[in-house]
Amino acid sequence: MLWLILALVICVGLASAVVGLVAVPARREGREVLTDRGERVVSTVASGTEKVAKGATKATAVVTKKRREDEAETATTAAEPTASTGARVASPAAAPTTTQEPRDSRSAQEHRAAG
User: Fold this and answer.
1) Measuring CA to CA, which residue among 85, 63, 89 is closest to residue 77?
2) Is 26 a member of any domain?
3) 81 pairs with which residues across the strands?
4) In this structure, are residues 94 and 74 in contact, taking their beta carbons and an 8 Å threshold?
5) Which residue, among 89, 71, 69, 72, has the nearest Cα to 80 in the 3D structure?
6) CA-to-CA distance for 101 and 94, rounded, in angstroms?
7) Domain that holds residue 33
8) Which is higher by pLDDT, 112 or 68?
9) What is the C-alpha to C-alpha distance for residues 42 and 16, in angstroms, rounded to an integer?
10) In this structure, are residues 42 and 48 in contact, taking their beta carbons and an 8 Å threshold?
11) Is 92 contained in some domain?
12) CA angle at 65 for the pair 62 and 67, rounded to the nearest 5°
């Protein structure tokens, strides 16, 4: 794994050297680095990136909103008083479980019938 990472770092270093030796001096002299086709490709990729970023932002907002609604609903359900005593009811998710399913090959029904 170390050799793979080292090879990648060397490749990035060589690519940076090529850009430094070719593209930077050409740009300083006023020559265009990319052709017209290259400029179109870069603009297409940039606009595609913006679309993906906007879509991801919207999807994240929807999921966050849904999660907050679910948490609020769970909190409301857990805090509702009972009609007869006025005591608060614990949520089923917070209640500890007292039974465990068998871990061997017997089914749960066989376990209950035998026990």
Assistant:
1) 89
2) yes
3) 88
4) no
5) 89
6) 19
7) 17-50
8) 68
9) 19
10) no
11) no
12) 110
Beta pairing partners, 41 = none
**Each residue of 30-40: pLDDT tens digit?**
887 778 898 89
Cα-based torsion angle of the residue sequence 87, 88, 92, 96 in order, rounded to the nearest 10 degrees: -70
Check residue 94 and give left, alpha or beta (phi > 0: left; psi -120 to 50: alpha): alpha
Q: What is the pLDDT of residues 77-101, one digit of tens each?
A: 766 555 555 555 555 555 555 555 5
Domain count, the chain: 1
User: How long is the chain?
Assistant: 115
* Distance between CA atoms of residues 98 and 3, nearest Å: 52
Tokens of 108: 């749960």
